[in-house]
Amino acid sequence: MNRPVRARGVGTTMRHAGLWAAIRRLAPTVPVPVLPWGMSSSRRRPSGGGSSPDSIRPPRRFRTVTRLAALVTAAGLCATVTPAPAAEFIVVQSTTSTRNSGLLDHLLPEFTAGSGIEVRVVALGTGQAIRNARNGDADVLLVHAQSAEEAFVADGFGVERFDLMYNDFVIVGPATDPAGVAGMNDAVSSLAAIARTRAAFASRGDDSGTHKKEIELWGEAGLDPASASGGWYRETGSGMGATLNTAVGMSAYTLTDRATWIAFGNKGDFTIHVEGDTRLFNQYGVILVNPDKHPHVKAAAGQAFIDWMLGPEGQGAIASFEIGGQPLFFPNTSRGASGRP
User: Fold this and answer.
1) Where would I find the H helices in 13-138?
2) Contact criterion met (CB below 8 Å) for 201 and 179
3) How many other C-beta atoms are found inside a 10 Å radius of the C-beta of residue 112?
């Protein structure tokens, strides 16, 4: 039985003799701080009396405590610490709509509970999310701009693209409806009316999936709203939630995905004015980043996430996500849980 060992001259009991022995073994290699008054043990007091600071040594007890403190510190630094194993995780580059709507908060805990894989989401506009994935800063891409997603795969950055779910875009605006578009189901004609009346319009202006759709619709109307930038046409360069806040603040129309609109809590007197146009269809896709391009991609864990999202559990979780009794997304993959189309 090891008894407590008391260091001589020190009023602290060392309860583990093994630790004290280790400290003693370290002693020859551990430098002890040299204080101004202890620089030389052989210097003598100068003639003529008095004392020199360089010749005064601290009490023995103080020197012992100082050395022990240095030794204990060194022992701590030399100790081997075995960290706990890190939980497995993947990075998903996704859109602001999947986060702002609350969908990911609904889905991810269920996936993680069943798989043990944590999902870390970077929510950006689709364009930036795709650029990040091209750079290898993702394991999975979940966005909503199908032509850009297909190009991502065609260029070798993605393994395969799968339809995941859909909703639609709507044009919202103030109750005063200065452009007179309320009740229209023609998105192109409604944008032409907004431009004609020079009614304020807030654009995301961020190369997101929503912004890509908006630019596509302006093009079909034969209009280039960028020429009016800073006037009736305002580009926020922000996500959907921030752009909706800007639109409400300046009584401007804007194009938004329905899910974010339903979840948005600062509607004021805003309402949906334009909906139902087939051109407002909003498809989401999911893609595994190609490990042949980026060997650090966690392909197995990323594929497990995709399989879950496309399988009955994930599709069922998407279908069950509602706010106020309204579904926000509709699952529509044709792929089964087996991992094959």
Assistant:
1) 17-26, 60-78, 96-100, 103-115, 126-134
2) no
3) 16
